[in-house]
Design goal:
Arc Repressor Mutant, subunit A, Serine Threonine Protein Phosphatase 5, Tetratricopeptide repeat, 2 domains, four-stranded mixed sheet, about 55% helix, about 5% strand
Amino acid sequence: MLHISAAPRWKVQLLRQWELLRDGTQVPVGTFGRRVIAGVTLAGPASVEAIAELLLPGRPVDESAERLRAEVHALRDRMPGLIDDNLGRLALAPEVWVDLAELLHTAYSQAAIVPAGSELIGELRDAELLPGWVEDWALYYRECVRLFRFATLEAIARYSLRLDDPGTAAAAARSSSALEPLRESSHTLLIRALVLAGHLREAFFVHEDFRHRLLEQTGTEPSPALTYALGLAASTAHTPARSIGAGAAATEAARPDDEAAHPQKEAVENGP
């Protein structure tokens, strides 16, 4: 009886580090081959010329496209089932698993946002795209993914506050503020979560730490919304921590309008 082996199970990892796996085993790939697979993953399906211009900018189109075709041919010979070039458009084969696509799918499900688990929050916090890659296209996509991670973490924090879940809200807000250390909205959400949990001294510390860093690095004061999150009038923001006694209920009046649960992902999908 003729035995037909199943197609290899490919996995492409772009977050935290580059890795290509076949049936769970790491597959070595040369430098340009790694760039080709990553570029096709992020920008495909796209024409050979478009991918070549992305990966080899500044070169004549014919020359860069010819080099790309040669590399794709070599990759397809060595790694059947990984890259699809039907109709002259390059893309990963549909059955290839990609960690970035998995993160986008998970973060976009309503069940993940409300309520979100610590695993998703940790993944959004740490999932840097292609760390250490310095090409312009890699920097562009890394920033797109970072903005997606940040916006999703803020959405989780907002919805967790609406669910009276200060623990999840604080974890998400801490993670978003780590991605954007001078973003006031994340620190406001963190302060609201800490007040709701009854951690008033810590909330005051977060307020003062952010205020001093913002003043030192930008020369500006935060808006009154940051202070209102403490449940205090702006004029009393800089009194000692022992004076804080407003409690969590006072933060409700200061809540900004809720934004959409899911940030837009067109920049990640459409590319430059």
